[in-house]
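Justification of computing resources. Each target in the renewal requires a structure prediction run like the one illustrated here; the chain below, 143 residues long, is used simply to show the kind of job we budget for.
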Amino acid sequence: MSEDARQRMNLDVIEEFRAGGGKVGGQFAGTELLLLTTTGARSGESRTWPLAYFGDGDRWVVFAANGGRPNRPGWYHNLVANPGGDVEVGTSRWQVTASIASGDERDRLWRLGLANAPFLADFQSKVAWEIPIVVLHRANGLV
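Resulting structure tokens:
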């Protein structure tokens, strides 16, 4: 899929997510999705990305797998440059701060991720780098 087609698909998913109170159909039916809004590392512009996630207590966990593509996703680079953002889950929106899991925490979250999404192992096998696991922490409540 071309980058333009992927961006169009993301825009369609974002629109459906917001219109459906956080639910989408099609290939993402039944998948827990959130919308992550970051600030562009180079552009400074807001960008919103639909991402699969799982909850870990009061945090959200996402994987910067980029579908097994050879580069890390743009949202990951944005969060490394500026770890603040917004998350939409269902009809609620929170400010968040991102951290990159490491060590024992990363190992634990990777095992949980594989249990929820076994295809992560396939994505990992396609890239030479370790897939970053990003933990999104609520910053200051609802936006």
